[in-house]
Design goal:
With 281 residues, the protein is an all-alpha fold. It is built from 14 helices and no strands. Helix 2 packs antiparallel against helix 3 and helix 5 packs antiparallel against helix 6. One of its GO terms (molecular function) is protoheme IX farnesyltransferase activity.
Length: 281
């Protein structure tokens, strides 16, 4: 039963985002780390993300039943009541924002509200079922955690924060498209207008290549701006170029599912390495 409740908040998503929060925080700290501030930032952001994930599960509970990948989620399977889920979402969100507002700073709180609002209201509630561009909107929400971490230290949104937002937003788009190809049948069954469903896999591959190239350019910008060192740049470029090569191999593959799975898994590795390198260099 406890495992089911944990699944409601999508712990893998929370963990992945906390790595990027820490990356942004440590980049801004420049070796002078306030561990109490870091702790409150991580806890606050994790609770806000948990709240957003629960609300996403609530909104998607009907389409989750139609998808093989999501049909066993706690709300889709009827394991938890709607009232209880809403209660958990509200409490998590309130506590998370309270911690960010009173123990971090105002700008981090505003960014958390903005990211959650975009993800829950604009992406999940409205665009996911209606627009091919929902992935682009969702990527904006996905880029807020590292920016929150950065602004927790600086208390201001500057050029470095903007570059961080670009890096993580541009990463999210090909990452999400690989998921859409991997579970194409599910998205078709649920009538979700993601790019490969509407425009086809070949067009989606072109978009993946385009956004990975933009991602690589954004990585370089962080060093050009003087915000990260050359060790970060070299390591991040190597892993990103390998990701790009894997993406290019999609033009020759006869098995799009296998290719999309490889691209998806390596995208997670890529952003994890980038987050770590931002932290240490």
């Amino acid at each position: 039963m406890f495992k089911k409740h944990v699944q409601l908040v999508k712990p893998k998503i929370i963990f992945g985002n906390l790595v990027s929060v820490a990356g942004g925080f440590l980049l801004a700290a420049k070796g002078n780390v306030n561990y109490i501030l870091l702790m409150f930032t991580l806890i606050g952001v994790s609770l806000v993300i948990a709240s957003s994930c629960i609300l996403n599960n609530i909104i998607d509970r009907d389409i989750d039943k139609k998808m093989e990948r999501t049909k066993n989620r706690i709300l889709a399977s009827g394991f938890m009541s709607l009232r209880s889920s809403i209660f958990y979402a509200v409490i998590s969100g309130i506590i998370g924002l309270f911690l960010l507002y009173f123990y971090v700073n105002h700008i981090s709180t505003i960014l958390a509200v903005l990211g959650s609002g975009i993800y829950v209201v604009i992406y999940s509630f409205y665009m996911k079922r209606r627009s091919i561009y929902s992935t682009l909107i969702g990527s904006i929400a996905g880029a807020t955690p590292p920016v929150i971490g950065y602004c927790a230290v600086t208390s201001k949104f500057n050029i470095c924060a903007l570059i961080l937002a670009l890096i993580f937003s541009l990463w999210q788009i090909p990452h999400s498209y690989s998921i859409a190809i991997l579970f194409l049948k599910d998205y078709k069954s649920a009538n979700i207008p993601v790019l490969p469903v509407i425009k086809g896999i070949q067009t989606t591959k072109n978009h993946i290549i385009f956004y990975i190239l933009l991602f690589i350019i954004s990585i370089i910008m962080l060093t050009i701006g003087g915000y990260a060192g050359y060790m970060y740049l070299i390591v991040s470029l190597i892993v990103s170029l390998i990701w790009f090569i894997i993406a290019l191999s999609g033009y020759k593959t006869d098995n799009n599912t296998s290719w999309a799975r490889q691209l998806f898994m390596y995208s997670i590795f890529t952003i994890t390495i980038v987050s770590i390198m931002i932290s240490i260099d």
